[in-house]
Design brief:
Blueprint (H helix, E strand, L loop, with lengths): L18 H14 L21 H18 L5 E4 L11 E4 L1 H5 L7 E4 L2 E4 H8 L3 H9 L4 H6 L10
Helix pairs in contact: 4-5
Length: 158
């Protein structure tokens, strides 16, 4: 007989306070609840939650969640592989916050010498603030100019 922990248990045996259950609940809210602050970016865009209930979600995603948590104990979240498609087993994976940043609709990519990366990754690579690379991109400079022209120390935007 399970020991009483003082926590409300889900049908799948996890506490409502467990991070995995919270992920499940948050996805459902942003997809199904028009009053949720994020609904416009999910349910409002036609994104559906394809699992019928928590048990089905747990069956499909819990094992991979635990594997990801082993590598990234404090940096595991769910992401849709195709941002314009639904939450389902085939379109979801566990990722770090940094990985997710690369998969946003608003991410801007630069291709230079056959290599494509987001602005933040190029900035890290060349050792300047992300805003500096973004500024040059917004000016309409070519990828070669953005990456290869040295940045001034005093005004690192240009």
């Amino acid at each position: 007989m399970p020991r009483h922990t003082g926590r409300t248990q889900t049908a799948g045996g996890l506490s409502h306070k467990e991070p995995f259950f919270i992920v499940f609940n948050n996805i459902r809210k942003r997809v199904n609840t028009p009053t949720d602050k994020d609904y416009k970016n999910y349910g409002g865009r036609g994104i559906y939650f394809m699992w019928k209930d928590y048990m089905e979600f747990k069956e499909d995603m819990y094992e991979s969640y635990l594997e990801h948590k082993k590598k990234y104990p404090n940096n595991t979240s769910i992401e849709r592989i195709d941002n314009n498609s639904h939450y389902c087993k085939e379109n979801c994976r566990w990722a770090t916050i940094q990985d997710q940043a690369k998969n946003r609709r608003t991410s801007r990519y630069i291709t230079h010498k056959g290599e494509t990366m987001i602005i933040a990754d190029w900035a890290r690579r060349i050792g300047v603030p992300r805003q500096s690379v973004k500024y040059r991109l917004d000016l309409g400079l070519t990828p070669e100019q953005i990456i290869e022209i040295p940045y001034k120390q005093k005004n690192r935007f240009i």
